[in-house]
Design brief:
The complex is a heterodimer. Chain A is mainly α. Chain A has eleven helices and no strands. Chain A is elongated. In chain B, helix 4 crosses helix 5. The chains are: A mainly alpha, B alpha/beta. At the A-B interface, helix 1, helix 5 and helix 6 of A face helix 4 of B.
Chain lengths: 249, 253
C-alpha cells in the first residue's frame, strides 16, 4: 500500500492539475469573501451569522475543489488511458482506488485548510477595513479553519468514489458542481419545504455544519463530521468495490 | 517469409517445455448480445514470438484484455504463468503489455510516467533510466508527453511495459504509427527479446510485417480461432501469410 501511495503522490505532483485547481480555488475564495465583505451593507455584516456565512465561503470552495481533485484522480486516468498501465502494474484495483482516496484526503486537507484560513483572514481584513466589529470568537475561527480542512478532506474521498462510479470525466465534474452549487440548495431550501429538515443531513450541509456555520439550522459540528465521514466511507467503498469488479475499458 | 534463423534453435530447445507461458482455455466473452471471443483455446511457449492475427473486430484486443485481467471472461479462462493475471504476485516483473499507443497523461513527462509505474511496482528508479535508454528516448524523457510524436509514444509505451524486465511481452498493434526505421527497430527488439528465452504475443493486422517478425501465429475471426501453428508450416505450400489469412478469414476475392 505504501508503494501505491507513493505512486499516487507522484502522479499528483507530476501534472499541473492539482496546482491549477488550487489556484482557481484560492482566486474564488478571495473573490467571494471580498465581494461579500465589501459589497454587503454594514448592518448585515455586523450580524455574527452573516459573518459566519461570509467566512464560510472558504469551507464551501475548499470542499468543491477538493471533491473535483479527488474525482479527477480517477477520471483523468480513465480519460487519458493511464488506468490501463496503472491496473496492469497493480491488478488489485480496489487498492489503487483506496490509495487514491487516501492521497486525495491528504491533499483535500491542504485545500480546505488554505481555503478556510484565507477566507477568515480576508474576511477579517475586510471587516476591519470597514470598521465593522468582528463578532466571532477564537472557537469560531478554529472551527472555520479546522472544519474546512476536515470537510474538504472528506469530500475529496467522496470525489474519488463518485469518479470511480461514474468514470466519465465531464459528467462526474458537472455532477459534483451541480450537486454542491444547486441540487442541495434546492433540496434544503424553501422550494422543498415538503421534505422537512432532511436538507441538513445532505453531505454538503454536513460539510458546512463541521465548520460551525448556521448553527440554528445545521447539525452540530461533531455530528456533521460523523455524518460526512460516513458519506465519504460509503462513497470510497462503493468506488473500491465497483472498480475491482467492473471491466476496465 | 520463414523463421528468423536465430530463433530456430531457441524454438527447438523449448519444444519440450511443459508449462506454457500463456494458456487460453475455451475463453469466451460476451458484451450483451455480441460474442466478442468465442470458445478460444491456445497456448504459448517460452521463447516464441506469436502473431495474434485477425481482421478488425475479430476479438484480438478483447482477448488480450481478458489475458491481462482488465476484463473478466464470460466463460473459460486465461492464464499467464499458470495463474490468472490478477492473482500474479508481482505482475510487472512477469508480464509487460501495451494495449493502446497513447495511454499517457499529456501533461506528464515520459520519465514521470515511468517513475509512477516503477513506484507502484516497487522497482528501483535506476530501471527507469535503463528502459529509457533501451527504447532510445532519453533525450525527450523530461518533455511532456503531449510534445511526443506517435513513434516516441510507442517507444514510451514499450518502456513502460518493460519496466519490470518481464518474461512475457503482450503488444496490441505495436507497429501502428511507426516509421520504417521504427518498425525495423521493433522487429529486431522483439526477436532479441525472444532469443533470451522470453515470450512475445503481438497482435497485428499488418501481415507482411508480422510475417517477418513472428515464429508462429494464432489467427482468429469473429472471436473464434481459425488457425494456429508455426508460420513455416502454415505457409509451406508456398502461400504467403496474407494468402493463408485471407483464405481463412473469408477476405479472399
Amino acid at each position: 500500500m505504501r508503494a501505491l501511495l507513493r505512486a499516487e503522490l507522484l502522479k499528483q505532483r507530476s501534472t499541473r492539475t492539482g496546482l491549477g485547481l488550487f489556484a482557481a480555488m484560492l482566486g474564488l475564495v478571495l473573490l467571494a469573501v471580498l465581494l461579500h465583505g465589501f459589497g454587503l451593507g454594514a448592518e448585515d455584516l455586523g450580524a455574527p451569522h452573516v459573518q459566519l456565512m461570509v467566512f464560510g465561503r472558504g469551507e464551501f470552495l475548499g470542499v468543491l475543489f477538493a471533491a473535483l481533485l479527488g474525482a479527477m484522480t480517477m477520471t483523468a486516468e480513465i480519460r487519458h488511458g493511464t488506468i490501463r498501465p496503472t491496473f496492469l502494474v497493480s491488478p488489485r484495483r480496489g487498492r489503487v482506488v483506496a490509495a487514491k482516496a487516501l492521497v486525495s484526503i491528504v491533499i483535500g486537507t491542504g485545500f480546505g485548510l488554505v481555503a478556510g484560513a484565507v477566507a477568515t483572514a480576508a474576511g477579517t481584513a475586510a471587516l476591519r477595513a470597514r470598521g465593522i466589529d468582528v463578532q466571532l470568537d477564537r472557537g469560531d475561527y478554529v472551527l472555520l479553519v479546522v472544519g474546512s480542512a476536515a470537510a474538504a478532506a472528506l469530500w475529496a474521498a467522496i470525489g474519488v468514489g463518485v469518479g470511480a462510479l461514474v468514470r466519465n470525466q465531464v459528467p462526474t465534474l458537472i455532477g459534483i458542481c451541480a450537486w454542491l452549487l444547486f441540487v442541495e440548495g434546492l433540496l434544503a431550501g424553501d422550494v422543498a419545504g415538503g421534505l422537512g429538515d432532511v436538507g441538513r443531513f445532505l453531505p454538503g450541509a454536513a460539510a458546512s455544519a463541521i465548520s460551525g456555520q448556521d448553527p440554528g439550522t445545521l447539525l452540530a459540528p461533531a455530528v456533521g463530521l460523523v455524518l460526512l465521514a460516513s458519506y465519504a466511507a460509503a462513497a470510497a467503498l462503493a468506488g473500491v468495490l465497483t472498480t475491482s469488479r467492473r471491466d476496465v475499458g | 517469409m520463414t523463421l528468423d534463423d536465430q530463433a530456430r534453435p531457441m524454438l527447438t530447445a523449448n519444444a519440450g517445455t511443459p508449462d506454457p507461458v500463456v494458456t487460453a482455455s475455451s475463453l469466451t466473452k460476451h458484451f450483451g448480445e455480441l460474442v466478442a471471443v468465442d470458445d478460444l483455446t491456445f497456448s504459448l511457449e517460452a521463447g516464441t514470438v506469436t502473431g495474434f492475427l485477425g481482421p478488425n473486430g475479430a476479438g484480438k484486443t478483447t482477448t488480450l484484455r481478458l489475458l491481462l485481467g482488465l476484463a473478466e471472461p464470460t466463460a473459460g479462462e486465461a492464464l499467464v504463468f499458470g495463474r490468472r493475471y490478477r492473482e500474479l504476485d508481482d505482475p510487472a516483473r512477469r508480464v509487460g503489455a501495451v494495449l493502446e499507443s497513447s495511454d499517457f497523461h499529456p501533461g506528464r513527462t515520459g520519465r514521470d510516467h515511468l517513475c509512477a509505474l516503477a513506484l507502484a511496482a516497487e522497482i528501483p528508479w535506476s530501471r527507469v533510466e535503463e528502459v529509457l535508454a533501451l527504447v532510445e528516448i532519453e533525450a525527450v524523457a523530461d518533455r511532456r508527453v503531449k510534445t511526443y510524436s506517435l513513434g516516441m509514444r510507442q517507444r514510451l509505451g514499450l518502456a513502460a511495459a518493460l519496466i519490470g524486465d518481464p518474461e512475457l511481452l503482450v503488444l496490441d498493434e505495436p507497429a501502428n504509427g511507426l516509421d520504417p526505421a521504427g518498425v525495423h527497430w521493433l522487429r529486431r527488439f522483439l526477436r532479441e527479446f525472444a532469443r533470451q528465452g522470453r515470450t512475445v504475443l503481438v497482435s497485428s493486422h499488418m501481415l507482411a510485417e508480422a510475417a517477418q517478425t513472428v515464429d508462429q501465429v494464432v489467427i482468429i475471426d469473429r472471436g473464434r480461432r481459425v488457425a494456429s501453428g508455426r508460420l513455416d508450416e502454415l505457409t509451406e505450400r508456398g502461400q504467403t501469410l496474407e494468402e493463408v489469412f485471407l483464405g481463412l478469414t473469408g477476405g479472399a476475392s
